[in-house]
Amino acid sequence: MFEHLYDEAEQANVNFIGCISERARYDFSIIYSKHFFGKPLVVCMQTGRSGVVGVEDLDNVDYIQNMFHITDSKIGEDLAALLKLRISGVGMTDQY
C-alpha cells in the first residue's frame, strides 16, 4: 500500500548544458526546485541517469562518475568542474 506524501506543482528553473569530450557527447538538464533541500536534479539526457546534486557533492568526483556511469576519471573531473560553474549553494534549505 502506498502512503501519499505530497503532490505539488511548481514553476521550476531549468538549465540545459551540453559538452563533448574526445569520446562522447554529454547533454544535461539541471532542474532547480524547492524540493530536495534546494539541491538541483541533474539529468543526463542521453542515458536518463539522474541525481540530486549539491555543491558539496561536486568535490567527490567518484560520486559524480558513479552517478552518471562515467569510467574515465578525466571526464569525471571535467564534468564536476562544469557543474560547479552552474550549480551554486544558493537556495539550500532545511526541508524537514
UniProtKB/TrEMBL annotation:
Pfam families: SAV0927-like. InterPro entries: SAV0927-like. It comes from the Bacteria. This is DUF3055 domain-containing protein.
